[in-house]
Design a protein that fits this description.
The protein is α+β, with helices and mostly antiparallel strands. The protein is 44% helix and 9% strand. The chain is globular, with a radius of gyration of 20 Å.
C-alpha cells in the first residue's frame, strides 16, 4: 500500500510486528478475536494481555501471541491479582482496553476502511425460532453490536452474521496510523510504562498508603530511574505515561 519502509520500526516491538506480518501473508482471512488482538496490541503494546477475549476455535489462536506477550511483560508478571484494590484496578483497565479495541474495529468497519467477509447465521440459543438463516443483507448498523469471541455482528440476537476480516489490510492500516514525527526518545518509555502498570495491577507496598497516587507514581518512577540508569527519565517524560494509565485504570484524582 505504499507505506514508508521504516514506518514499522516506529511501532513498539517491530520484530514482533514483522512476525505478525509474515504470518498473515498466508493467513489473511481471520476471525474477530485475532483481528481485535492486533488492534489491542497496537493501542496498548505494554498493557495488552492477549487473554482479553477467550478463543472458541483453533483459528482464534495465533503463533505470535507468546512472543508478543513476553515483550509486553518486560520481565514483569501479567497475572491477574488475587486481592483488592489491585484486582478492581486490573478489571477496570482490562475493560477499558477491550472497549477501546472493539471501538477501533467498529470504526474501521463502519467507515468501510477494512475489507470483511460475512455469512448469515442462526443463533442456536433461540430454539423456538425459525432455523433458517437471516435473509436480509449485512448493513453498517450491524457493526454496532460486535461479538468478538463468537466472531459475529448483528443488531438482534436472532439475526447475526459470521464475520471475518482481511488481516493484511488491517495490519497495513495500523502501520499507516503510526506516528512517525520526531526523534525517538533516548529513554525506554515502554519499560517505564510496564513498571507503573506493575504497581497499579499488583498489591505492592508503593500504593497502599498513597494519598496522592499520581504524585507517588511519578516520584517513585523517577527515583527508580535514577537508581537504575546514569541518564534517567525525568518527571516530564514520566508524567504523561502516569496520567494516561490513571484514566485507563479508573484512578483519576
Amino acid at each position: 500500500m505504499g507505506r514508508p519502509p521504516d514506518r514499522i520500526n516506529k511501532l513498539a516491538f517491530p520484530k514482533v510486528w514483522r512476525e505478525i506480518e509474515a504470518y498473515h501473508e498466508k493467513h489473511w482471512e481471520v476471525r474477530l478475536r485475532p483481528a481485535t488482538n492486533l488492534i489491542g496490541y497496537f493501542l496498548f503494546p505494554i498493557g495488552w494481555h492477549w487473554t482479553e477475549f477467550r478463543p472458541l476455535a483453533a483459528a482464534d489462536k495465533t503463533p505470535y501471541e507468546q512472543a508478543a506477550r513476553e515483550n509486553s511483560s518486560q520481565g514483569l508478571p501479567l497475572n491477574r491479582p488475587l486481592r483488592q484494590p489491585a484486582l478492581e484496578r486490573w478489571k477496570t483497565g482490562r475493560r477499558y482496553r477491550k472497549n477501546a479495541a472493539k471501538d477501533y474495529l467498529e470504526k474501521l468497519l463502519v467507515r468501510d476502511d477494512l475489507k470483511h467477509f460475512s455469512n448469515s447465521v442462526r443463533n442456536p440459543a433461540l430454539r423456538n425460532r425459525d432455523v433458517g438463516p437471516v435473509t436480509r443483507s449485512l448493513n453498517r448498523s450491524d457493526f454496532s453490536n460486535i461479538r468478538v469471541t463468537a466472531s459475529t455482528v448483528g443488531r438482534l440476537t436472532s439475526e447475526q452474521f459470521d464475520l471475518a476480516v482481511d488481516a493484511k489490510g488491517l495490519i497495513s492500516l495500523l502501520i499507516e496510523a503510526t506516528e512517525t514525527r520526531g526523534a525517538p526518545s533516548k529513554h525506554n518509555l515502554l519499560e517505564i510504562e510496564r513498571w507503573c502498570r506493575n504497581h497499579l495491577e499488583r498489591n505492592t507496598g508503593l500504593l497502599k498508603e498513597a494519598n496522592n497516587m499520581r504524585a507517588t507514581l511519578i516520584n517513585s518512577a523517577w527515583d527508580w530511574q535514577g537508581e537504575t540508569y546514569p541518564e534517567p527519565a525525568g518527571p516530564d517524560q514520566i508524567r504523561p505515561i502516569v496520567d494516561r494509565l490513571l484514566i485507563e485504570y479508573g484512578c483519576e484524582e
